[in-house]
Write a structure and sequence with these properties.
mainly beta; 8-stranded mixed sheet; 2 helices
Length: 508
């Protein structure tokens, strides 16, 4: 028998072009009553296979100037295009780098080769996150991080030159950038820091109670191990009122001689110096200024002489150097004698120093030993300075009580002063230019006795001031007759105690 008509028609339908058309699949199904039917559906309704990234999220660390490759390798991309973008930070917008094989960014350092992103050379701004993605629902994503290390840079947050008054506090501050975060250390070009340390760590350096000894150039140096360290320099200039001393507070001279009156002055700003004589201003035509360098030749001051400023350190030293301000009198006469005052003044104050110009002898300076070698005599020797011959001397002396000291640390003395006044024979003087050495022997003194003496001398212009009180004694003799014993040592027969006798020898 032939096939049923319905079955034959079904087979013919399936064999027709419509039944074999692209995009359709046939499925044989059954109804609830057991009868069968065919259903068809579209091919694009089949579940699509999603891409999958082969690389894992990675963190890349490179130094600035190097190259880096960020992988975005994936399988089963199908017709989906790979998108690479730089993720924004601090609330900005993401930056699209590439879509598929097309590079979107104009940055010539960035190239895209298939699924690989290359940056060469790397710059600090490249640091951050890069996203590889396929824009599906939900999206397929891979995120890499890039850390760019670079050498530090540093800047001063205060002016490069700090002018501060003496006694104040100054704070220096620096700010550094770099990756890794730099460490800031402070140093001083001229040597140790005011703390005595060679370096200190931190963003700031505070110096309290500044004086001229802390002046100099300070460096804040940033270092993070990448490249070399970087430094910023700041200088501290300490300003202070004038400081003034005299080389000689009393200058002795004579008619027709040349006299130099010298004040040693320093201050910041450099003080202006003027002179007065007995209260009257003096013309500056007789004034001169020289650098003052103890132990070295004192050069005439010339700020344009390069020999004075060979190095930065020398420049700072010269800026703070003292100067000898000299007032010269070429041909001294009696009218030139008197009190001269050098006045140093700057914006922070004024200071004076007085020099007395005189033709009188200087106060004598005793040079003899305080322990005399004679029992009833003592020879005083002394020196004085005078431009004229010494023509007279005066010695005051008396016994001194050495038994105790008063609360003001002066010696208690008894007895009255003996006065000796005597002319001086020029033959008795030992002269060395203006320096005169003299001697005088005191007689009829008591044996082993302490004395005080004061000396004055005179030249043709008058008497000198008194010498300092000089203590001396006549000859003393001591005899130790027994020797001390200690426990465990047997004394010689007949000696029961130990005595120390001080004998005053009689006059011979």
């Amino acid at each position: 028998m032939g096939a049923p008509l319905g079955f034959t028609l079904l087979v013919l339908l399936l064999l027709t072009p419509q039944g074999l058309s692209k995009g359709y699949n046939n499925k044989f199904s059954y109804n609830d009553d057991g009868s069968s039917y065919y259903e068809d559906y579209k091919e694009d309704e089949v579940e699509e296979v999603r891409p999958n990234f082969l690389a894992r999220p990675q963190s890349f660390t490179v130094e600035v100037g190097q190259s880096v490759i960020l992988p975005c390798d994936a399988e089963n991309p199908g017709t989906n295009k790979l998108i690479i973008k730089k993720i924004a930070t601090d609330g900005g917008k993401d930056k699209l780098v590439s879509v598929g094989t097309e590079k979107v960014t104009r940055d010539r350092r960035i190239t895209v080769d298939g699924s690989r992103l290359t940056i060469s050379p790397v710059r600090p701004r490249d640091a951050g996150y890069f996203l590889c993605m396929f824009e599906l629902e939900p999206p397929v994503e891979l995120k890499h991080s890039l850390d760019v290390q670079f050498a530090p840079s540093i800047e001063s947050l205060v002016p490069p030159e700090q002018h501060v008054a003496k006694g104040t506090t100054v704070t220096l501050e620096c700010k550094a950038q770099g990756n890794p975060e730099p460490v800031i250390r402070w140093s001083r070009q001229e040597g140790s820091l005011p703390s005595g340390l060679s370096t200190e760590e931190g963003n700031t350096l505070t110096i309290e109670g500044v004086d001229r000894h802390v002046e100099g150039t300070y460096l804040c140096t940033a270092d993070n191990g990448i490249g070399g360290p970087n430094s910023a320099a700041m200088s501290i200039t300490v300003e202070y009122p004038p400081e003034i001393t005299t080389e000689k507070s009393i200058v002795t001279t004579g008619d027709g001689d040349k006299a130099e009156l010298v004040c040693v002055v320093q201050g910041r700003p450099s003080p202006d110096v003027t002179w007065t004589m007995n209260g009257r201003p003096l013309p500056d035509i007789q004034m001169d200024t020289k650098l003052y360098r103890p132990g070295r030749h004192n050069d005439t001051y010339d700020p344009y002489n390069s020999r004075m400023n060979p190095t930065h350190a020398d420049h700072l030293n010269l800026a703070h150097a003292a100067h000898r301000h000299i007032y010269t009198i070429e041909n001294v006469s009696e009218k030139d004698f008197g009190d001269y005052v050098c006045v140093a003044k700057n914006t922070h104050g004024q200071k004076n120093a007085k020099i007395h110009l005189t033709g009188l002898p200087k106060p004598p300076h005793v040079t003899s030993s305080p322990n005399g070698g004679e029992r009833t005599m003592y020879t005083l020797t002394w020196e004085t300075e005078s431009y004229y011959p010494i023509i007279e001397l005066m010695i005051n002396y008396r016994k001194a009580n050495m038994g105790g000291w008063q609360t003001n640390r002066t010696m208690t003395m008894d007895g009255s002063w003996e006065i000796i006044s005597s002319g001086v024979d020029p033959k008795d003087l030992v002269n060395d230019d203006t320096r005169h050495s003299m001697t005088y022997t005191l007689t009829n003194l008591e044996v082993a006795t302490d004395y005080l003496a004061v000396i004055r001398v005179r030249n043709k212009d008058g008497w000198s001031a008194e010498s300092q009180h000089f203590s001396f004694s006549t000859k003393k003799a001591a005899l130790a007759v027994l020797q001390s014993t200690s426990s465990g040592v047997r004394c010689p027969t007949g000696v029961s105690s130990l005595l120390l006798l001080t004998l005053v020898l009689p006059n011979v």
